[in-house]
Design brief:
Layout: E1 2-7, H1 13-25, E2 29-34, H2 36-46, H3 53-57, E3 64-67, E4 86-91, H4 93-100, H5 107-117, E5 122-126, H6 133-144, E6 148-149, H7 163-177
Parallel strand pairs: 1-2, 1-4, 2-3, 4-5, 5-6
Helix pairs in contact: 1-7, 4-6
EC number: 2.5.1.129
Pfam family, one: Flavoprotein
InterPro entries: Flavin_trans-like, Flavoprotein, UbiX-like
Amino acid sequence: MDIVTAITGASGALYSQRFIQGLVQAGVNVHLVVSPLGRRLLHDELGMETVNLPMLAGTDDHTITLYNYNDVGSKLASGSFLHDGMVVVPCSSNTLAEIAHGLGDNLISRAAAVTLKERRRLIVVHREMPLSPIDINNYKALSDAGVILCPANPGFYLNPTTVLEVVDFVAGKLLDLVGVKHSLDTRWDPKVVRPPMQTM
């Protein structure tokens, strides 16, 4: 299985890291593109001086290939490259707009455009609030084009007690959407009694 994954400059590096770790644990081939602001995000939120593949994967034994953001001649930019879906996590409003308007002057937006034209699954994890009217219009355009819009909105019915549990809820949902089995605790089960969250 091959999943294209893109990291852009919206807060939420942990979402991308945990999603990628889930892919690697399942033996998925990860084709990764990181925007310049995505690199800054990894630095600011995860302390990476460069894109650290073992740190993203959670292991030195990973199946991640890193591609150049500016290489629009990469195989990811061609419909002849067969893959099982593309996930942009996190997705900035800038990248959201590029995809919504069919721009392709970098590998992320180009790969997304190709994913759409080939009728493959494209999942966009927009990480912004509140939404501007422009964002809302772009949501509509993307939804009409068949994009799965998956804002990073975790559920709290599992009564999470750590930030990682909150992050895993979103990462697990993304893994479900690309059809990858995982062991993250994200399922609602009314028969399971969980202790209530501690409040301030």
